[in-house]
């Protein structure tokens, strides 16, 4: 209550073996959603070792709107492309409700299977080149 | 003579050893010194004075060698009027400008010390000029930047150019089609605007200026070569001196300015040409901003005409009403949309669509246009909402972005006194049904958003509206309107449901208005998302009900 910026958007990135964890705090909306996509994509591109899991931790999320959901869908598209599974952890009510209403929770968190093989192929191609 | 000199002001004081060389000091002074007797005869002059007044020797008359301002001053001193002098005497001598300082010598002689201040004066004039020009430039900017109206900007530019830079000015704007908008102004006269087919290559440097090349120096333009169209009405021609200056815009030239001076006036100096260029730069920037703004405003207005929600009315015995408020009040279009596609006859379903595209503003509005068009094309397939959503999803899917839409499809058909509704939600907020007794029900029509996933699922719910009952479709802009007594609370579904329950029996239009009004009240001056609502109502009574009610019944019995 005394915090002058109770909903300041913040991203905290944690990298452990095979897993990228991004803690998303504050409001994920029209103004901030690009920040999330960019951050995740940057790590996906630069990570040499390859990631098997990307975890978005929403325990400090205060608000998400349709633009925020657009970002999650984009993150999912990019993680799928590199064969990483997306996890949405500690979902607050506001996120849970949005995911249920739009019926995308299953899609977002489905384990990557077919894409994984495709990605392995891609990686082989890259190491050849 | 020597005592006089030692008491004199100015340059002689600079002598490092005045006492020792006092006899020679005044003759060596770098400034001209004249010793004149009370009758105006030259007693002696120093070297500097001889260089200034070649041929002057002792014994000549003062008035034979210097202008009258100095002679008169000398005479006044002779008459004892010296005390009335308030400021240093000054005036021109032989194309230079001097201050004259007299000191008294014995026998009524006067020593005139002439201090050359030509350069100081020139500097002072230059400074005053520069100050005036800076003032003009800042006036140009502030006047021009206060308007985003292109014709007004051109008018002001031409008028100010004629006022401060020349006797007449013509602003040639880039062509619209083959014709150039021209703005004429003469000093003191009103600016006039015409659009004319003119040959710009007739004016030296104008074609180049309109392409944004640097200006051609004024001396390269022969005023006699100017074509007639350049000369404004009321200009006391012929032109004696002409400048063509480009108006540099943001990336593209904003036009060119032709400045003219009558042959009776002095021609443009190099400094004035530089100033004209500065003036043109300011004017060009303002003009270009105005042009960009008006182009954008036109684009937005054109798009808006296509994207604005349609007016709704009663169709086949069912009332429809819609309300829309864009997130930014000045934009008028946004990410929410609705449409009603009437069935071709009462036996056909009327399709109602209400939806919300992720994002805001024009980007979102363009996507809503795409969705509305696609759905229009899919109308023949609306017996199967799932299939419509599949096809729509496929049409929207792109690798470039994951911008999605949520929407509700409602197929409505009148049956007797009631209306049958098939409702399908594609990830949208569930429709609310207001029963005749004030009960509010939520329709459990769930499904996947469209436009982002490879496949979508949807579940269609059927329901029936009795006379006086209403189905409300709405977007989250209403339930998520932030405001209330604390200023940061959502309007929320519970408030919407309560508000709706008080609308039992009202016509569709009144329901939408009531909902919008309450959301707007809750919002106050707060920031909000797009807000849209559509009400589908079966009128309680009235001849329309009976008339249209029969028609579908007959059709049904025949099939």
Q: Could you name the CATH topology of chain A? A: Transcription Regulator spoIIAA
Q: Taking all residues together, what is the mean pLDDT of chain A?
A: 83
Q: Oligomeric state of the chains? A: heterodimer
CATH second-level architecture of the largest domain in chain B: 4-Layer Sandwich
Widest β-sheet, arrangement of strands of chain B: 11-12-23-20-17-18
Question: How many separate helices of chain A?
Answer: 5
CATH topology term of the largest domain in chain B: Phosphatase 2c, domain 1
Distance N terminus to C terminus of chain A? 55 Å
CATH C-level class of the largest domain in chain B: Alpha Beta
- What is the strand tally of chain A? 5
| CATH-defined superfamily of chain A | STAS domain
Q: Could you characterize the architecture of this molecule?
A:
The complex is a heterodimer of chains A (129) and B (559). Chain A has 129 residues and is an alpha/beta fold. Chain A is built from 5 helices and 5 strands; from the N terminus they run ββαββαβααα. In chain A, strands 1, 2, 3, 4 and 5 form a 5-stranded mixed beta sheet that branches. In chain A, helix 1 links the parallel strand 2 and strand 3. In chain A, helix 1 packs parallel to helix 2. The longest helix of chain A is centred in the middle third of the chain and has 16 residues. Chain A is globular. Chain B has 559 residues and is of the alpha+beta class. Chain B has 3 domains: 115 residues, 2-Layer Sandwich (Beta-Lactamase); 176 residues, 2-Layer Sandwich (Beta-Lactamase), CATH 3.30.450.40; 247 residues, 4-Layer Sandwich (Phosphatase 2c, domain 1). Chain B has a 6-stranded antiparallel beta sheet with strand order 11-12-23-20-17-18. A 5-stranded antiparallel beta sheet of chain B has the order 2-1-5-4-3, sandwiched between helices. Chain B has a 5-stranded antiparallel beta sheet with strand order 8-7-6-10-9. In chain B, strand 17 and strand 18 form a beta hairpin. In chain B, helix 5 runs antiparallel to helix 6 and helix 8 runs parallel beside helix 9. The N terminus and C terminus of chain B are likely disordered. The interface between A and B is medium-sized, with 15 and 25 residues.
């Amino acid at each position: 209550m005394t915090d002058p910026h109770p909903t300041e958007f913040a991203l905290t990135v944690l990298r452990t073996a095979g897993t990228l964890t991004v803690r998303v705090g504050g409001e994920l909306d029209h103004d901030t959603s690009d920040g999330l996509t960019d951050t995740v994509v940057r790590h996906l591109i630069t990570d040499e070792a390859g990631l098997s899991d990307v975890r978005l931790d929403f325990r400090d999320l205060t608000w998400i709107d349709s633009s925020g959901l657009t970002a999650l869908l984009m993150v999912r598209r990019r993680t799928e492309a590199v064969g990483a599974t997306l996890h949405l952890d500690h979902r607050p009510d506001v996120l849970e409700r949005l995911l249920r209403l739009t019926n995308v929770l299953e899609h977002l968190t489905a384990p990557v299977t077919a894409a994984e093989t495709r990605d392995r192929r891609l990686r082989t191609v890259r190491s050849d080149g | 003579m020597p005592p006089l000199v030692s008491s004199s002001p100015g340059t002689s004081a600079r002598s490092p050893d005045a006492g020792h060389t006092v006899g020679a000091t005044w003759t060596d002074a770098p400034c001209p010194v004249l010793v004149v007797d009370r009758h105006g005869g030259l007693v002696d002059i120093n070297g500097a004075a001889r260089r200034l007044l070649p041929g002057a020797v002792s014994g000549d008359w003062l008035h034979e060698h210097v202008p009258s301002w100095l002679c008169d001053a000398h005479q006044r001193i002779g008459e004892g009027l010296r005390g009335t002098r308030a400021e240093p005497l000054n005036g021109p001598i032989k194309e230079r400008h001097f201050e004259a300082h007299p000191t008294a010598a014995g026998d009524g002689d006067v020593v005139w010390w002439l201090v050359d201040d030509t350069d100081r004066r020139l500097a002072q004039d230059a400074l005053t000029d520069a100050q005036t020009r800076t003032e003009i430039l800042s006036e140009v900017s502030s006047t021009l930047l206060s308007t985003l109206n292109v014709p007004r900007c051109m008018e002001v530019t031409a008028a100010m150019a004629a006022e401060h830079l020349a006797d007449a000015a013509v602003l040639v704007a880039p062509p619209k089609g083959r014709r150039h908008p021209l703005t004429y102004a003469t000093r003191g006269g009103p600016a006039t605007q015409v659009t004319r087919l003119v040959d710009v290559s007739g004016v030296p440097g104008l074609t180049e200026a309109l392409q944004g090349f640097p200006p051609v120096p004024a001396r390269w333009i022969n005023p006699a070569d100017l074509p007639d169209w350049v000369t404004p009405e009321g200009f006391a021609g012929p032109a004696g001196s002409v400048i063509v200056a480009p108006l540099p815009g943001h990336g593209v030239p904003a036009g060119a300015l032709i400045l003219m001076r009558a042959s009776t006036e002095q021609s443009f100096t190099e400094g004035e040409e530089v100033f004209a260029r500065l003036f043109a730069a300011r004017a060009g920037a303002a003009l270009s901003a105005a042009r960009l703004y008006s182009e954008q405003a036109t684009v937005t207005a054109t798009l808006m005409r296509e994207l604005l929600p349609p007016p709704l009315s009663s169709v086949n015995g069912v009332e429809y009403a819609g309300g829309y408020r864009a997130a930014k009040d000045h934009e008028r279009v946004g990410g929410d949309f609705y449409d009603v596609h009437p069935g071709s006859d009462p036996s056909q379903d009327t399709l109602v669509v209400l939806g919300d595209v992720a994002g805001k503003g024009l980007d979102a509005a363009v996507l809503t246009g795409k969705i509305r068009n696609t759905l229009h094309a899919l109308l023949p397939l609306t017996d199967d909402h799932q299939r419509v959503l599949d096809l729509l999803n496929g049409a929207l899917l792109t690798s470039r972005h994951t911008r999605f839409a949520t929407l509700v499809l409602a197929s409505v058909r009148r049956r007797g006194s009631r209306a049958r509704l098939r409702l399908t939600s594609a990830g949208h907020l569930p429709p609310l049904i207001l029963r005749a007794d004030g009960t509010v029900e939520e329709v459990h029509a769930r499904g996947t958003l469209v436009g982002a996933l490879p496949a979508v699922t949807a579940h269609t719910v059927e329901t029936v509206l009795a006379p006086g009952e209403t189905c409300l479709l709405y977007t989250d802009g209403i339930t998520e309107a932030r405001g209330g007594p604390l200023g940061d609370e959502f309007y929320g579904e519970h408030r919407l449901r309560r508000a709706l329950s008080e609308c039992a029996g009202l016509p569709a239009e009144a329901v939408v208005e009531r909902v919008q009004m309450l959301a707007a009240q809750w919002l106050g001056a707060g920031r909000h998302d797009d807000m849209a609502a559509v009400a589908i109502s079966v009128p309680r009574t009235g001849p329309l009900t009976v008339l249209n009610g029969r028609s579908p019944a007959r059709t049904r019995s025949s099939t």
